[in-house]
Write a structure and sequence with these properties.
Blueprint: H1 3-8, E1 16-22, H2 27-38, H3 50-54, H4 56-60, E2 65-72, E3 76-77, E4 88-89, H5 98-114, E5 120-123, H6 131-137, E6 142-143, E7 149-150, E8 158-165, H7 185-189, H8 207-210, H9 219-222, E9 228-230, H10 234-238, E10 246-247, H11 254-257, H12 261-266, H13 269-276, H14 286-297, H15 306-309, H16 318-331, H17 333-344, H18 350-361
Parallel strand pairs: 3-10, 4-9
Antiparallel strand pairs: 1-2, 2-8, 5-8, 6-7
Helix pairs in contact: 14-16, 16-17, 16-18, 17-18
């Protein structure tokens, strides 16, 4: 089977086969992952077994060929709201969950491959293999300084999937040369210094990570939160390779990408399911998004919402409740501090009291650390 016949199999599909390689272990990638593990840079979303991340046969058994599948995103708007009471959702989490779209499309492609006698399996994001590393090794694009895979036609605005076939089709693509050169726009744009080392990301400094993490958000991260509800596109919006992937006019999903913060904070379970369950942000649950709304509201320009945040001090969720003090004090420092000091005596949850006490003692700093 050659490239032309493979390309024909994606006819009438939204996906394209953008890379291919004979299955192999990515030893160099394993060394990088091992160094990250020793440095304590792993996060809870990642597969703990490093061999399963770099060796396709470790998880999927007999694999001879790996096909890299790309799903380009719809063009996105550059236009952002000037309304401080609206937040921002990453373009990767707007619209139908890309996991579902990619799974649906790759399953169709796998059926077509099977009709030609090829056996295989599909991985879409949630599997153990490190898709970006295999995409680079298979010639699907080059790694940017912000660690995304950049495709010559799509920039980094696309989703990745893998098809793992049993037979070795001897299909190879030439590796892409580095397209970043001396450009440092993504690094300079990152508000938390997560990209201080080119081609490496300090995930524990990445705002996109913190919008998904359940752990307590460090105060210095909170100070740089901005209006984010889920994900962060800052480094990708700064990348010149993505310029052609963004329209200047507002797109049809603008409202979904720029939701009202108080509406997110106050949404009930039914509203959450209607608004987010079909998107890539839905998996993290209602209260994480409500917490993120609190952090996005924690700005003086959002003080008009002060009275609507006050009831959150009695929210059933201790986690959500614990963040309300930060928001109220950042909205109106004097009024907020007085309110929290008065509520400390009646708050029964030890964790919440400790969190509120720490917020009251916090002194803002330019340092990117809570120490």
């Amino acid at each position: 089977m050659n490239w032309m016949s493979l390309s024909e199999m994606t006819e009438n599909l939204s996906i394209e086969i953008i890379g291919a390689m004979s299955a192999k272990v990515l030893d160099e990638t394993r060394e990088i992952l091992s160094a990250r593990k020793e440095a304590g840079e792993e996060v809870e979303f990642e597969e703990a077994d490093l061999d399963r991340r770099v060796d396709p046969r470790e998880t999927y058994g007999s694999v001879g060929t790996m096909l890299i599948v790309g799903l380009p995103m719809p063009k996105q708007t550059r236009k952002k709201t000037n309304d401080p009471m609206r937040g921002s959702v990453s373009v990767f989490a707007v619209g139908e969950d890309y996991h579902r779209v990619m799974q649906r499309e790759t399953n169709v492609l796998m059926e077509r491959l099977a009709s030609r006698g090829l056996k295989g399996q599909v991985q879409v994001d949630t599997g153990p293999l490190l898709e970006r590393a295999f995409a680079q090794a298979a010639g699907a694009g080059f790694q940017g300084k912000n660690t995304t895979i950049i495709h010559p036609n799509w920039g980094s605005m696309f989703f990745l999937g893998l098809i793992l076939l049993e037979g070795d089709l001897a299909l190879e693509r030439e590796l892409n040369e580095d397209g970043c050169g001396t450009c440092m726009r993504c690094q300079n744009a990152c508000p938390t210094g997560a990209l201080d080392r080119p081609y490496r990301m300090d995930v524990k400094r990445c705002l996109s990570y913190w919008t998904q993490a359940k752990a307590s958000v460090p105060f210095w991260i909170r100070e740089r939160w901005g209006d984010r509800i889920y994900g962060c596109d800052t480094c990708q919006r700064a990348c010149p390779w993505n310029r052609e992937r963004m329209d200047e006019e507002t797109d049809s999903l603008w409202e979904e990408a720029n939701p009202e913060l108080l509406a997110i904070l106050e949404m009930n379970k039914g509203e959450f399911q209607s608004r987010f369950l079909h998107t890539a942000a839905g998996w993290r649950g209602r209260n994480i998004l409500r917490r993120n709304a609190l952090l996005a509201l924690a700005r003086p320009e959002c003080k008009a919402g002060f009275e609507r945040v006050v009831p959150v001090l009695q929210d059933p969720s201790a986690m959500v409740r614990s963040f309300a003090a930060w928001t109220l004090i950042r909205m109106e420092p004097s009024r907020g501090r007085t309110l929290i000091l008065g509520r400390l005596e009646t708050e029964k949850d030890v964790f919440v009291r400790e969190e509120w006490t720490a917020v009251l003692a916090w002194k803002s700093s330019e340092k990117m650390t809570d120490c």
